[in-house]
Amino acid sequence: MPGPARLACPTCQRPVLWNDDFPHRPFCSERCRMVDLGAWVSGERAIPGEPVQPDEAGADPATPGGRNGLN
Prior knowledge:
alpha+beta; Erythroid Transcription Factor GATA-1, Chain A; two-stranded antiparallel sheet; 1 helix; about 10% strand
């Protein structure tokens, strides 16, 4: 039976085993997890796609008012 998966931390590339010894997986540490979160928040990382227009942001067609119930 093979052992836990081994992968590289997305932030620093250190080896990480996919087991309970690495509670922040896929990151090697809390620091690397927070560095990654900061990159998403600052806009360094993004999921490719069409830009969202400001009037469409937060729109929820299932909710009257369109802004997730916040009118």
